[in-house]
Amino acid sequence: MTNDTGTSIALECRQVTMKVRKKEILNEVTFSLEKGRIAGLLGPNGAGKSTLLSICSGLMEPTSGSVRIFGQPAGIETLRSIAVLPDRGKLPEWLTAGEWLAFAGQLYPDWDFEREEQLVQSLRINLGTRISAQSRGEEARLQLISCLARTSPLVLLDEPFTGVDMISREQIASSVVADLADGERTFLIATHDIREMEQLFDRIILIGNGRVVADNEVDSLREQGTSVESRYREVFS
Ligand SMILES: Nc1ncnc2c1ncn2[C@@H]1O[C@H](COP(=O)(O)OP(=O)(O)OP(=O)(O)O)[C@@H](O)[C@H]1O
Question: What is the CATH number of the domain that holds 163?
């Protein structure tokens, strides 16, 4: 896979600290994610999840600390290895969904057209609808396709289900993302939709006030009779 230098670590954050105008948003965040993992990045509003994902994507530089993607420092060079679904991203409203996907297919060298077609079917995208006329949930699904139709080895999703109805969330979580998790691709997903995503995660990283407050293997939690939701409540209540 692209940029795969043979390391088994897809993403490594070492003592990542972010300060904006003296306000500390992230404080020495350290964790690493092995290849093939599907990790949930969970935490209350304002905990620092989106900021951390922006730094991991290489689009934002931390005040201190470092991020490595498959062993390389995060930045322009590593962008091709990462598919990012940003928080509050916007698609060009004047295009139809089909026009946007055709454009995205030309834009990304790792675009999988067959996969795009499957995703359009399973997420029920009407290709003729102009993006400006799509509902919030429809646009969120189109954004998700823009990310998942790529074959990038690392996928960073920030709130992929904003505006998506409950049944569709469950369907996307159980079929689409699980289907893509072939043990090769690595996912880090920031979400508040813990119940729908719980079955998918094999690891959870809990962020509170800009710090990693818990980092658990989901299998270990299950062995202890604890669910992801209970663990979240235990840490943040
Ligand atoms: N550019 C900025 N300038 C000042 N403060 C910022 C900036 N970006 C983020 N923050 C602050 O940093 C904190 C973390 O924000 P962030 O969006 O990363 O949190 P989050 O965990 O993604 O929240 P949510 O779950 O609500 O999406 C918040 O208090 C936010 O107000």
Answer: 3.40.50.300
